[in-house]
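=== RUN LOG ===
request id: a7f3
mode: sequence -> structure
chains: 1
length: 465
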Amino acid sequence: MLRLLGHRSTACDGLTRRDVLRAGTLAALGAIAAPARAPGRSAPAKAVILIDLFGGPSHIDTFDPKPDAAPEIRGEFASIPTALPGVRATEHVPRLAKRLDKMTLIRTVSHGYNSHNPYAVMTGFTGGQDQTDYYAKPSNHPSIPSVCQYLGVGRAGELPGYVMLPAFPGYSQGLRRAGPYGGYLGPKYDPLFSTCEPKWAKPKVDFYDHDHTPMGEPALPAMDASLTLDALDRRRTLVDQLDGRVKWADTSSGSGNLATKRNEAFELLTSPRARDAFDLSRESPRTRDRYGRDLFGNSVLMARRLVEAGVTFVTVHTEAAQGNGHWDTHNNNFRMLKNILLPVLDASVSALVDDLSDRGLLESTLVVVTGDMGRTPKVNKAAGRDHWPQCGFALLAGGGTKAGCVFGASDKTAAFPLEHPVSPGDLAATIYHLVGVDPESTVPDQGNRPVAISHGGRVVSGVLA
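=== RESULT ===
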C-alpha cells in the first residue's frame, strides 16, 4: 500500500499509473535549473524552532487579556504584570510573563483562513480551504523549511535539515494535513517525522477533556530488516517507496532525487549522532523536570537537542495526541487552559528560552510560537471560545528578533487589530529574512511557473533587532 502525501491508491503491484506519472513530475521538478541562492549577508538565525499550537490558542486568555472588558469578553482568568512595564498576561503563564523582556510579542496576527490545517502557519499561504486542502497533496505550497532547503539553507552533515516532532500533524495521526511537506518542490524536501505513541494516566472522556495530559517521547522511526511496503508507507515518502520498483527510475532525470532521499534516510536511521540527539536520557533529571515530562515538553526539549546537534529547522506540532494535543477550545476553554494547556506551554517554552540563552544558542536560534488562529472575543454557552482568525498572537525569541518588544495592538475586545496587522505571509517573510533567504524569491510550481515564497507577505521590520 502506498501513500501519496495522505492519499492511497493501489493496484496489483501496489502502484497505479497515476502514482508513477505524479512521481515522475515531482522528480523532474528536482532537475529544474538551480534556484537563486540566498543573499550574501550574514543571517542572524542559524536554526529555527517553530512551535505550532494546533487548534487556535485563545489570545485573550494568554497574551492579550482585556481586564476592563465585560465578563463575557474578559473570561474567567485574572491578568498579571509581566517583565515589560504596562504589559499584562494571563495569570496562568507566570514563567513566560517573567521572560517577556527576552521575547517579542505580536498581538495582531490576522488573516482569513478559518481552518485547523497548519497550512498557513507552515507556508504563509492563506488562500486555501478545507474542501481542497484538508489533506496534503503534491500541488500544495511547500513549507517554509522545505523552501529554505530548496534554496540551499538547511542540511549540514549526517543529520537532516528539517525535523518534525513528535509526529506528523493530523488528528492524532489519523490523517496527514497540508502544510509540513515539500509540496510541488517534491518529497525530497519533506521533513523527517519522528514517531510517538502517546499514553494517558487514565482513559480520556471526550475531545474537550480537561484532565488528561499525553505522556511519551518522540523517537526516531524504527528500522529493521523485515520492513513491509505498508510499514514503508508509514515511514517514507512516495519517492522513497518508488526507488527500485519503477523501471524508468534508472534513466529518469529525477533518479538522483530518489537515491539521495533513500540514502539520507538510511544514513540517519543508522547514525550514532542521530540516535544520541534523540536520546533524552542524556539530559539531567532537573532539565527534564523544567521542560515537563509530558509529550509536549519532551518534544520541545528534543527540539533544543536537535538544534544543538546541527539540525536547521525543527517544528513541534501539538496535534499528535488529543488532550493537550489541541487548542481547539470550543468547550471547556478555561479548564483546558488552566489544567493542561497553559501550564505545559509555560513550563516548556520558558525552559527552552532559558536553556538556549544559557548555552549561548539564543542569538542564533529563532523561536516562533503561534497557532492557526485566535478565539472569539465572546465566550459561548459551552464555556468555550470559537474560531477567530481575525486576531491572534505570536511569540518570537532570539535569532535576530528584538527582545522586550510588543508589536501591534488589538481593539478593546481583542476582536481586530487596531494597528500593524501581521499575516502568516508576513511571518513567513520575516523567518526567511532572518535565516538569510530573500523573502521576495520565487520557486517553481508543478507547471514550472514562479510562485512567490512569501505569498505577498512583507518582513515585519518592527520586530527585528
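=== NOTES ===
The chain has two domains: 1-31+231-267, 47-223+270-463.
The radius of gyration is 21 Å.
=== END ===
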